[in-house]
Design brief:
The protein is 24% helix and 16% strand. With 261 residues, the chain is α/β, with parallel strands linked by helices. It has a four-stranded antiparallel beta sheet with strand order 6-7-9-8, covered by helices on one side. It has a three-stranded parallel beta sheet with strand order 2-1-3, sandwiched between helices. Pfam families: Phosphodiest (PF01663).
Length: 261
């Protein structure tokens, strides 16, 4: 384990190593390999050259400042040209508001309304463009739901409960991936035992991760994995979270983890 992915590090996140694995590829490249032309606005990975190939048109490094109407206009400017047969667009709401204010907040309801208005605008624009009217198939997708959290009271302070000198980990607010440190005389099973007694946290050996997670058959996955109870946040340092009232990444059997679309 030599490389770590941090979503906040835009430069390193563009490295192809994160996207080149086996025969897996993003759909915009599959389209290109079969003779199509793809235009992709701000979708994760679209700024990266994967196997020395990119979508025919992209918007470059992600910029959350673009509003939804601008993103739609830019995408339609591209796809109205006859050479394009696939367009993809990402918008960061209501995810952004859900994290900051919580899924039951008025701010999330406002973000949902904004997104709904964006879909209406998309449909209106398509009807106004002769090259696209009655010729476009639209798929609207979402990758997760959101659960309420309280960064002040629902914290699992891992560093105060487990000695970490002989293993390494990467963490999100909801999960931990844990590796033994090279040269340390410690087994995966011994590491697992250290985490078993931590309240509001469930730890697994890689082979025992529930099948429904679809998260145990890749060599990049750590030998020990832990997930917090829904609504709890895993902290590996003091004062790690500020103004975090919504999170995803918990057990996908929980209805709150499902999109409402």
């Amino acid at each position: 384990m030599e490389l770590f992915y941090y979503y906040t590090d835009s430069a390193k996140n563009m490295e192809p190593v994160w996207f080149e694995y086996g025969h897996v590829e993003p759909i915009w490249l599959t389209n290109e390999r079969h003779g199509g032309k793809s235009c992709v606005f701000q979708w994760v990975g679209s700024e990266t050259r994967i196997r020395n190939q990119m979508a025919f048109a992209t918007a470059g490094v992600y910029n959350g400042a673009y509003d939804l109407q601008y993103r739609i206009d830019r995408l339609l400017d591209w796809i109205s040209h006859p050479e394009f047969n696939l367009g993809m667009l990402y918008f960061n709401e209501p995810d952004k508001s859900g994290h900051r204010y919580g899924p039951n907040s008025t701010e999330v309801m406002d973000a949902v309304e904004l997104t709904n208005e964006g879909v209406s605008y998309l449909l209106q624009r398509i009807d106004q463009i002769p090259e696209l009217k009655d010729k476009v198939n639209i798929i609207i997708s979402s990758d997760h739901g959101m659960a309420y959290t309280d960064y002040k009271t629902q914290i699992i302070d891992v560093s105060s409960k487990v000695q970490t000198y002989d293993f390494r980990y990467t963490s999100s607010p909801a999960t931990l991936d844990i590796w033994p440190r090279p040269g340390r005389d410690v087994t995966d099973e011994q590491i697992l035992e250290r985490f078993k007694g931590i309240e509001h946290l469930t730890a697994y050996l890689k082979k025992d991760i529930p099948d429904r997670y679809h998260y145990k058959n890749n060599h990049r996955i750590a030998p020990v994995f832990a997930v917090a109870d829904q609504g709890w946040l895993i902290a590996v340092k003091e004062d790690q979270y500020k103004d975090l009232y919504g999170m995803h990444g918990y057990d996908n059997a929980n209805p709150e983890m499902h999109p409402f679309m």
